Amino acid sequence: MPETASFAGRVFGPGLPGGGAAAAARWQDAALVVVVADGREIVAARVRIEASGFNAERVRLAWSAGPEAAGDYAFFVESAEARARCVASAPEEHAAALRAALGAQAKTERRFRLGWGVIGAVLLLPFLVLAGFALNADALARWVVARIPVAQEAALGDLTLAQTRTQMTLIERGPAVDAVRSIGEKLTVGSPHRYRWFVADRPDLNAFAAPGGVVVVFSGLIRAAKTPEELAGVLAHEVAHAELRHSLQAMAKSLGLRALVSLALGDFAGDRMAGALAQLGELKYSRDAEREADAEGLRRLLAAGIDPHGMVSMFATLARGAPADDGGGEGTAEERRVSPPTLLSTHPPTEERLASLRQMLAGENRQFAPLSIDWAAVKASLPAR
Ligand SMILES: [Zn+2]
Questions:
Q1: Measuring CA to CA, which of 3, 96, 106, 180 is 20 to 30 A from 325?
Q2: Radius of gyration of the chain from its Cα atoms, rounded to whole angstroms
């Protein structure tokens, strides 16, 4: 009964989650019937067949969602077993195209093995033989990240933003966001990224920059900052992480090489990618990356004509923790679970960082005009706690 044999995969398209949904498909005459995990049934009368994915290891069945809907649907047949069933049960008119797609796939798989044999000898061997694994993972992540185009990073930023919205309430307009944006734009003049600035309604003293220029500042941090210059200090540090592609490298390390190459090719589909994005808030930077971000942040503050001493005093505040009236660091267990680590928890010892910041500022005795931001109004605009 080949026409009832179903094959598993993942479906993407209008009305489905960005990371796709698990589904089972079967051929019904010339049509493809896709049953999504939630029970929804999508019938595709006219299907296009393509090999896809990193080195064409998947078969993609694509079809138009109709004239009134935006975008196409795509069903990815991922496992070898599912592919075999898909081909075996395919109607005559699709069988040839499927065989062609699988033929292309076998060819690229052979090329893949050969290619990786060489690359493995050069790049991967050190992983196996050296105990200094972390060191090489860093180097490899940097090497691959350097080859990811800015446009792909931006697409990753869009996904990141969608993921962030599921984890926290973002404040998108009002004095607090205006303040973050106006300072942030001064710090990112000439950047290749299209920055997007947000304030999250959360008590923690925290902020993060995701790949592709998505910057989120927690309201707890704005409450704790005594001046806009202090906020600028943290923004400069986070922007430096984004500009130096630290966030992308940290993600690269936690993703693994294969997913990373998919990323470089702009293939964001699949579970592994979705999983990696879910971990975004837990990205950790190396000590070197933190020192680099401090120095680059300071450089950006000076270039923007913003008093850099705010960075030093804000870091001192962060080291002490939240002021008592702020309730910072509180929040439900659930909030804490999805919350990024506090800004300084993964950083080099704060005393050491403060000392080197002070050292870098030692010869700096310029007068800086204060930022023209009504700081009291910014704080008053934050949701009540
Ligand atoms: Zn940092």
A1: 180
A2: 25
Ligand 1 centroid distance, CA of 156 (Å) = 20
Q: What is the pLDDT of residues 306-321, one digit of tens each?
A: 999 999 999 888 877 6
Calculate how far, in angstroms, residue 249's C-alpha sits from the geometric centre of ligand 1.
13
CA of 318 to the centre of ligand 1 (A): 12
Please give the Cα distance from 195 to 240 (Å, whole number): 12
What is the distance in A from the centroid of ligand 1 to the CA of 347? 7
Only one residue has tokens 């796709």, namely 20
How many whole angstroms separate alpha carbon 44 and alpha carbon 22? 17
pLDDT band at 260 (very low <50, low <70, confident <90, very high): low
Q: Which residue has the tokens 């500009």?
A: 243
How far away, in angstroms, is 342 Cα from ligand 1 center?
Answer: 10
Q: How far is CA 199 from CA 72, 164, 375, in A?
A: 33, 11, 15
Q: Beta strand 31-36 with 21-28: parallel, antiparallel or unpaired? A: antiparallel
> 350: CA distance to ligand 1 center in Å?
11
Q: For residue 298, how far is its CA from the centre of ligand 1 (angstroms)?
A: 13
User: Could you tell me the residue ranges of all domains in the chain?
Assistant: 2-103, 150-381
Highest mean pLDDT out of 4-13, 236-245, 339-348, 373-382: 373-382
Which sign, positive or negative, has the C-alpha torsion 144, 147, 153, 159? negative
